[in-house]
Automatic annotation (TrEMBL):
Gene source species: Pterulicium gracile
UniProt cross-references to InterPro entries, sorted A to Z: Aminotransferase_I/II_large (IPR004839), AspAT/PAT-like (IPR050596), PyrdxlP-dep_Trfase (IPR015424), PyrdxlP-dep_Trfase_major (IPR015421)
Protein family according to the UniProt entry: Belongs to the class-I pyridoxal-phosphate-dependent aminotransferase family.
Residues covered by the Aminotransferase class I/classII large domain: 111-462
Lineage: Eukaryota, Fungi, Dikarya, Basidiomycota, Agaricomycotina
Keyword Iron-sulfur: no
Name of the protein in its database record: Pyridoxal phosphate-dependent transferase
Pfam families: Aminotran_1_2 (PF00155)
Keywords attached to this entry: Aminotransferase, Pyridoxal phosphate, Transferase
CDD domains listed in its UniProt record: AAT_like
Length: 496
């Protein structure tokens, strides 16, 4: 068992081998080419690889535990499900709790469906909702400015990924800058839309994962960057670009480079002073001309309004961009759900939004501080505590091997019915060439404090159990004995 003291390469680690055997996760661009039979079932099909949440959820499902319910069916399985599950703590899913929180407006509980809403909606979205989005941005970020957003600057899309895909589909053959770590879906977008040539920049924890705007401007000149893609506030590190730094980043959009900012966590800002509750962050504040500045904003109801199941989001930018997005939407996704768009309109009322923001920030700050306090008691100090989002980027390097890497830590927590996301999924690496042990994200996991507090405590208890077991038993019980699938349960009913 001494081999588990020091895995040095992914080939030595069972957790890493399970990851590589999943469709789409084989290294690319390596000679001789390896062939995975699971990826060759249909000629011409190339698996893009799954995002972190999907892979981790599939692994959780594979770790269901069989038990007997009676003579028929003789065997069933308790396993993870995307719906609420009292058996599992999901600290992996990038979703906020969707129920009522203190002092927030009432949650929507019915959807009106007039006959007209049964028709297709325009690929740019319902005009009234587009107007509501434009009005909210103008009210929040552009009061007193000569240039104002109109409905022509807004395109409604069925989810954030659809927004990214629509934008990527209309970008020509260009160099696209992105940062590591960042949102996992960027990996698949940059892999699927091959006209974007990915140019990575690794951000440093010692600098609190700050994006160096001056260096970025130099890279635009020396590397010919035409597009910059980033989340702000940043997933998974919980940091945010704001104030003068954000103003300088937006200025790049007036100098011949398009800046695409994923602003889904723009309300999840945790102020130190009561007077700052209700403030949010957006590049829209620093845009000079809404139709000339090449700033593209992607946001929606998913995170800030805590309505991930609605799949109603938007892209805001120059109106000639919206025209292009309408065309790409006509063949990519066909448009967002018509009744849900109509139901969303009253939720964008500025007064309601302000009440939502304050309630959200106070509630999620309490959860953030609670999780950080419990992690400190376990001697898991967070190197760069989050000032925004609902994520904690946890460094495991100080733990004994093999728990000191994200994939193995994740697999061990599955045994405790808890899900986290291994850091390697945030290493945006479309070629998949790196030895996973060399990834700058390898020793990390992302914990979400999006779920309700009782779910967070259940997951933190599981982490504590793993650490206690490591102290008691040593390394021998870790790094192996992982279930690849629900062996022996084919054809039986599944209780989720």
């Amino acid at each position: 068992m001494d081999v588990f003291r020091g895995f040095m390469h992914e080939k030595e680690s069972p957790a890493h081998q399970i990851f590589r055997q999943a469709a789409g996760h084989k290294p690319k661009g390596i000679i001789p080419q390896t062939v995975n039979p699971d990826e060759e079932t249909v000629p011409g099909i190339e698996h893009p690889g799954s995002t972190g949440v999907i892979y981790c959820s599939d692994r959780a499902i594979a770790n269901g535990k069989p038990f007997y319910l009676g003579p028929y069916p003789p065997l069933t399985t308790i396993c993870f499900s995307y719906a609420a599950s009292h058996e599992w703590s999901n600290l992996g899913q990038g979703a906020p709790e969707v129920g009522h929180i203190p002092n927030a407006p009432p949650r929507p509980d019915s959807i009106p469906m007039p006959v007209d809403s049964l028709e297709y909606a325009p690929t740019t979205g319902v005009k009234a909702l587009r107007e509501a989005v434009a009005n909210l941005y103008n009210h929040t970020y552009r009061q007193g400015k000569a240039s104002q957003y109109t409905y022509e600057n807004v395109c409604i899309v069925p989810g954030g990924r659809a927004g990214l895909s629509r934008v990527a589909a209309v970008i020509g053959d260009v160099y696209c800058s992105y940062q590591i770590p960042d949102y996992t879906a960027y990996d698949q977008v940059l892999s699927a839309f091959k006209r974007l040539v990915p140019v990575p920049t690794a951000l440093e924890p010692g600098n609190k994962y700050r994006m160096d705007i001056k260096q970025t401007k130099k890279d635009i000149i020396t590397q010919g960057l035409a597009v910059i893609l980033a989340s702000n506030p940043r997933n998974p590190t919980g940091q945010v670009i704001k104030g003068q730094e954000l103003k300088e980043l937006v200025s790049i959009g007036r100098e011949g480079t398009t800046v695409i900012l994923d602003e889904f966590y723009s309300w999840y800002i945790y102020p130190e002073h009561d007077k700052d509750y209700g403030k949010s962050v957006s590049s829209a504040e620093y845009v000079e001309d809404v139709n000339e500045d090449a700033i593209v904003i992607i946001d929606g109801l998913t995170k800030n309004w805590r309505l991930p199941g609605w799949r109603v989001c938007w892209v805001v930018g120059p109106k000639n961009l919206v025209t292009a997005l309408s065309q790409s939407g006509s063949f990519l996704d066909g448009g967002a759900n018509h009744p849900m768009q109509l139901a969303a309109i009253p939720l964008l009322d500025p007064q309601r939004v302000q009440q939502e923001k304050i309630a959200l920030q106070k509630h999620f700050k309490i959860k953030r501080d609670h999780v950080l306090k419990r992690l400190r008691k376990m001697d898991l100090d967070v190197q760069v505590p989050p000032t925004s989002t609902f994520y904690i980027w946890l460094n495991l390097e100080k733990l004994p091997a093999p728990l000191n890497n994200g994939l193995t830590f994740f697999e061990e927590l599955l045994k405790e019915k808890t899900i986290v996301i291994p850091g390697i999924f945030f290493d945006i690496n479309p070629s998949h060439r790196r030895n996973l042990f060399n990834s700058p994200c390898h020793p990390y996991v992302r914990l979400s404090f999006g779920p309700p507090l009782e779910d967070l405590d259940m997951g933190l208890d599981a982490i504590e159990n793993v650490l206690k077991r490591a102290r008691k038993e040593g390394h021998k019980g870790f790094g192996h004995s992982y279930k690849k699938s629900l062996e022996g349960n084919e054809g039986v009913s599944t209780q989720v």
